[in-house]
Task: structure prediction
Amino acid sequence: MFNTVFKKLLSTYFVIIVITFLILGLLFSQLFGSYFFNRNERLLLEEGEKINELVIDYLNGYITRERLNLELQSVERFLNTRIWIIDKRGIIYGVSSDEEKWIGKQITKKDMLEVLKGRTIVKKGIYEEKGKTPMVTVGVPIFINGRVDNAIIMHSPLYEITKAIREVHKIIWTAMLVSFFISFIILYVVSRKLSAPIREMGQVAQKLAEGDFHQRVTSYEQEDEIGKVTKTFNVMAEQLEKIEENRRSFISAVAHELRSPLTLIKGFIQGMVDGTVEDHEQEKYLNIILRETKRLTQLIGNLLDIQKMESVEYPIYPQGFDINELIVRTLIKYEEEINQKEIAVNIDLQKEQGIVFADKDAYEQVIINLLDNAMKFIKHSGKLNIKSYYLNKKVWVEIQDNGIGISKEEQQKIWDQFYKVDESRNRNKKGTGLGLYIVKRIIDRHEESIKVESELGVGTTFTFSLSPKEK
Result:
């Protein structure tokens, strides 16, 4: 039944409102009831004090009995209260206008006689000697010369009070009912509005799961917690869309990179098998096949490296090492190729801050990839300059070649997967297009920086940073 956030919110708030309104209604009813009863008691007590003075004046002969009766009648009409005046034996000798039948009767009820002991009494309920009508009875003693000589008993029927209380209850519960319906409407609208983005997120998430990465949540634009979750969800959807685009691009690029050498290898081998390639040319084509298999091996190795680097938990193992020693040791691996192309190598390594703190194997991969890139584009008898220096609390390594250079438009693209600078100009076809992408990932993982400066026909300079090891 409660299978949606909207229903849960609505039912929860509905129960809260009902309980709150019931408690408030009962509380207000009780408060108003107590207020009316207490107010009536205070009025009776106040009037009892006034009658007390009148009775004393009467007993002292200051006013006549007629004057006393008129005053009692006035109080009766004003408060709808029956008044008795009793002597110290409990015998009624004075009454209000329509209470003449009680003259001469003696009060026998014990709690009523307590007033003759000097106590003011207030009692609610049915007074048996007055019939079965619920009443508020107030007894006020009359003191003469410090002794209780007489007393005043006043009976006020409760139906006047209960009638007023019923009217107040009617107003309270009507207001509560109107407030409840207004609150329910507001609650419905708010619950609907709060649950709408959650419901839409569920629908969008379902579409994302089905492969439609263009979906976004658009039903909520507030700056509260739900709005932040909605924005985060949309950012996640955008990232998924980019990941999907990159995945498709990656698969397409990998398929293309694999198809070309495999097609070439298949063609040469097929030619050897069916005799199309003559025996004296087989060595030439075998060398081509060997070169392409090496490129495939390098491509697979790079893909495995990328798979590790794409993981958020891609580990790095920082250690202290001499960057200058690593540069020289890595450069030795290219000695044969340097000699074949008669490249002039110039090395300028600073000695003061050579010890750095980073993942040694990862930075060896950086240097290898940058040297591979330089070797591809340096012409015969070209130049290669390698330099290290300390600047702004960082150790910088600079690898410069005088190759074909990179245009301004292409300099921002060289860090992309499978991007080859020479592809559009049909020059060097070596490499996989992943070397610089791997370099950028390693540098970013170390929270360091790398920059490129290049000019067509002049050459290219790559410069990257490392953190020196603290002494």
